[in-house]
Design goal:
Blueprint (H helix, E strand, L loop, with lengths): L2 E2 L2 E2 L2 E2 H13 L7 E5 L8 H10 L10 E8 L2 E8 L9 H5 L9 E3 L9 E3 L9 H5 L6 E2 L14 H4 L21 E2 L5 H4 L6 H5 L5 E4 L7 H8 L4 E6 L16 H8 L5 E5 L8 E4 L2
Parallel strand pairs: 4-14
Antiparallel strand pairs: 1-2, 2-3, 4-11, 5-6, 7-8, 9-10, 12-13
Amino acid sequence: MIMEGPMYEGRDELAIIQEDIKRALAKPVRRWAMLIDLRRCVLCHACTAGCVAEQKSPPGIIYRPVYEEEMGIYPAVKRRFTPRPCLQCDNPPCVQACPNKGEGKATWKSTKGISAGIVMINYMECIGCGRCVIACPYKARNLDSGAFYTEGTPNIESYETSPTWEYSRKWPREKNHVPIGNARKCHFCYHRLKNGMVPMCVSTCIARANYFGDPDDKESLIYKVIKANKISVLRSVKSNGAAKLTFAQLKDLTSEEIATKTGYPGKTPVFAETSLTKPRVYYILP
C-alpha cells in the first residue's frame, strides 16, 4: 500500500472516500465506520467548526470536540490531539439506558438500510429524560436547552434560527420545537450520507486525518488502512464532571449547566485495544 501524506497511490484520499461511500450505497448491505489517524491531526478544529456549521449546533452542544493532551517530561514532551465524534457503538450503553428505545423510537442501534452502523435518535420520540446523557462513557450526548449564542443582543441572528436537516428532516430552530429539549449527538452526517456526500468533519479536515466508509468492503480505503495499521478504540473519556448523577438532577438545567455537571464533552481519552461498547470509530495512535 503506497501512502504519502494525504495521497493514496497518487490520488487525494477524500476523492477515494467519496467513491467508497457511493459504492457502499449501491450495495444491499453496508455498515458505516470511521477511522481517525491521530498522527495527522494538527488541532486546527476545522472538523469541529464544520460540524457546528452543518448541524447549526447551539450553545452547549458539540458533536465533534478535539481533546488536547501533553505527555512526558521535558525535554521528551509530546502532544496528542484526539477528535471524538459519537462512537456509534455496536453495544451502546445509551440505548440500553433509554426508557423509549427501539427502532423508530427515541434511540436505537441501526442495523439495516442507509443508517446501518449508526446509533440513531428520533427527536419526535425522545422525552428528554437525560438517561442516555449520563450512560454514555464517551461524553458524546447532551440535552439541547434551546439557547442561542446571540441571546441578550439586539437581535437573535438569522444563522441561529435557520433550520437543521439532521436525520434528513427539517427541524426549525424555534422555542418549544424539537430538537429543543432532546438528546443530541453526532450521527455521521446521516443526511449527507443519504445523498452520497462525505460527512462534514471528514471533508473539512485539512490533514486528511479521517477515513470513512464500510470497513467490510475490501475495496474501500478504510478497510485497507485498518489492515495496514495497529488500531485502537476509546474505552472511556474522563472529565471533571460529577462522578455520580441521576437523570432527575438534569431537570430544568441549561445545556451549559448539564455539560458542567456531566463533564460534557469530555477532556481526556482513554484508549484500549477493545471495549465492551464495541465502538465503530477506530484510531491510529501516534
